[in-house]
Amino acid sequence: MKRKILVAITTFVLALACSFTTYAAGWVKDDIGWYYAYSDNSYAKSGIRNIDGVDYCFNDAGYMVTGWQYTNYNSYGWYYFQPDGSKKTGWLNENNKWYYLDPANGGKMHTHWLDIGSKRYYMREDGSMVTGKFELGSDFLDNKLSYYADPSTGELYKNKKTTETKSNGEVVDIRYDDTGVIRYRTAKTIAKAKETGDKDDEWVTSLSKYELDSKKERAKEDEEANTNDE
Fold first, then answer.
1. Per the CATH hierarchy, to which homologous superfamily does domain 24-126 belong?
2. Using CA atoms, how far apart are residues 132 and 129, in angstroms rounded to an integer?
3. Whole-angstrom distance, CA of residue 55 vs CA of residue 48
4. Between the CA of residue 76 and those of 7, 65, 105, what are the distances in Å?
5. Which residues lie below 8 Å from residue 89, measured CB to CB, with a gap of 6+?
6. Res. 123: pLDDT tops 50
């Protein structure tokens, strides 16, 4: 009798032990790709998962994915995963275009204005960095605002001055203000500022009005010259 009881207890204990079987956690590779198995025999899947302090991304089937992935971390957006599967943060150069994967936002691709320390950049809707001269927004007079980003680094020109001489000999002073907006000054704008008594009229965001005035003046001079010839 005692023997039967002992056998029954042993069988129960073994069955109980089997019900709590644990598995070795780790990376596994099959014919499809890499996946990560947890010790409870479940798998990492459907989004970004942190494994041993590193972020990886998995599809709904549980396989690790790389490259650009639109997924949710701190918020939905584009994230980039390197060939080894780890999430990339900071600057990324791909196909000769620069992107910024913001570490402060979980590595999410940054768009629009980007300030890093004292440096400023502008990132397009697709995340790529703008270089050279570009227009964005307008002032209260509906003049389009122009900016210039260094062709090599993408850093916005700020607090700089330069001079340009046009083909007609007109000298144009160019200033990049503390926000990067390009402003122009010519003999005409200086005269306008003296006329109005408003110092702000000296530096303008667009010379189109003054160029138009110059064309009108030249047309008037030509008309007067033709009249005199007659």
1. Cholin Binding (2.10.270.10)
2. 10
3. 6
4. 57, 17, 11
5. 101, 102, 103, 107
6. yes
User: The whole model's pTM is what?
Assistant: 0.74
DSSP state of 63: B
Asked if 62 and 38 count as a contact pair (C-beta separation under 8 A), the reply is no
Summarised one tens digit per residue, pLDDT across range 30-71 is: 999 999 999 888 999 999 999 999 999 999 999 999 999 999
For the segment 127-182, what is each residue's pLDDT rounded down to a tens digit? 999 999 999 987 766 778 999 999 999 999 999 999 988 888 888 999 999 999 99
Q: Residue 204 contacts by C-beta under 8 Å, 6 or more apart in sequence?
A: 143, 183, 184, 185, 189, 210
Burial pattern 92-117, b for ≥16 Cβ within 10 A else e, equals: beeeeebbbbbeeebbbbbbeebeee
Q: How many residues does the chain have?
A: 230
Reported as half-sphere exposure (CB side, CA atoms, 13 A), residue 128 has a value of 7
**b/e per residue 177-209 (b: at least 16 CB within 10 A):** eeebbbbbbbebbeebbeeeeeeebbbbbbbee
- Which residue, 188, 194, 158, 155, is CA-closest to 173? 188
- Helix residue spans in the chain (DSSP H): 2-19, 187-196, 208-229
Q: Which pLDDT belongs to residue 213? A: 47
Half-sphere exposure of 156 (CA within 13 A, CB side): 29
Please state the domain extents for the chain.
Answer: 24-126, 130-229
